[in-house]
Amino acid sequence: MKKALFTILVAAACVTAKAQTTPDTKQDVLQLKEASFDFGKIPQNRPVTHVFEITNTGTEPLILENVQASCGCTTPEWSREAIKPGATSSIKVGYNAAAEGTFNKSITIQYNNGMVKTMLISGNVLKAPATSAPVNASISLLRQTN
After folding, report:
1. Are 95 and 47 in contact (CB under 8 A)?
2. Which of 25, 50, 55, 71 has a C-alpha 20 to 30 A away from that of 119?
3. What is the band of 19 on the pLDDT scale with cuts at 50, 70, 90?
4. How many helices (H) and strands (E) does the chain have?
């Protein structure tokens, strides 16, 4: 009886140990050409965009289920079509440069039933001038000569 109980416990321990060391079968098949982009200095009230290139490194089609920005000032655009193995696609990210100062925003890509990858954009929005350019007095002088 003790021998049978011992054998069952050893077998259960082996199964448990095997289950804990089994690697996750999901493979990361989305490769980003660049994971972040710095716009540098940009003028206030001038929206900017950047295109991130992605590649399907897997053997099955890659499906982008959702691409979501961390705030409403950042807007991603992407194709809903499956990306064939070895093929590339792009995600266009726009940023509304309305607020002055530095920014760091994240864009989360959800793909292939639960896989997630994050891209980052950053930059520094420079304050727009309070008034338009000053009037050029020499233009009025040119108009007076005949």
Report:
1. yes
2. 25
3. very low
4. 2, 8
